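Hello,

I think I submitted the magnesium ion job twice by accident. Can you confirm which output corresponds to this input? Input:
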Amino acid sequence: MKNIFFVGTAGCGKSTLVAAYKNWLDEQGFDALILNLDPGTDTLPYEPDVDIREWVNTAEVMEEYGLGPNGAQIVAADLMAMNISKMTDVVNKMRSDYLLIDTPGQLELFAFRESSKMTVEAFGRESSMLLYLSDPSLCRDPNGFVTSMTLSSLVQFRLQLPTFGLLSKSDMLSDEERDRMLGWFTDLDSLYFDLMEQDSNPQTVVGAELFKAMDSMGVFGEVRGVSAKESIGMAEIYAASQLCFYGGEDAEPGEIDD
Ligand SMILES: Nc1nc2c(ncn2[C@@H]2O[C@H](COP(=O)(O)OP(=O)(O)O)[C@@H](O)[C@H]2O)c(=O)[nH]1
Ligand SMILES: [Mg+2]
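Support: Only one job matched these inputs. Its output is below.
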């Protein structure tokens, strides 16, 4: 089974994209399971096949430990690691081509706690990849764009998984906004210009230089616009997963083994 972790800041569209991509895979005749790893969510836009809330539930942690929502989220994230073998046991009994993993709402609960590394190891690092979703509400202006891309490279650095960058909710962007943003990747001068025009503080230069250094190392790769609402970019996600798991060879339904 191949694992795809959906990661990004709160509200960037992880859960909605998991649902949309699962539908797309179903339509193409591919088998996929969904694992919800968010112990704090009330509602999900899909029916999870395996759900962390069976073992860890943020609301129950609040009550049991007498904690507020923030403290309970952290305890719940750590309890996730303690229950990981129970989850992998259940998942391993269900055979499927892909496991779509919806991670906790708050990025730092997944990316910056030790439990996430343990989770990746438990599911198998060599058969896992990460989709990093950038939220257009953050990255439509040049400062937010550099912030968002820096964050994505930090997550990549932290979790050490092959990562594919997605510009989430791209239906919310006008064609001009999208072109401008994609232009920042291909033309660093235009990013510099737009950054300095937005704000010419010394910190702006630091951000721009940081971006340039990461870009020259190739950390960003290609970023694709997707929309879960309009089912745009699903084939690109699939192609990225093929590239990651099989070196680009297109797998036919049923041909994928574990
Ligand atoms: N316009 C638009 N809205 C979206 C899209 N994907 C998600 N949303 C909305 O963004 C909000 C947060 O989505 P959710 O999937 O819960 O984000 P998560 O916290 O990352 O799991 C919800 O109100 C979604 O309806 C999209 O592709 N287009
Ligand atoms: Mg979610």
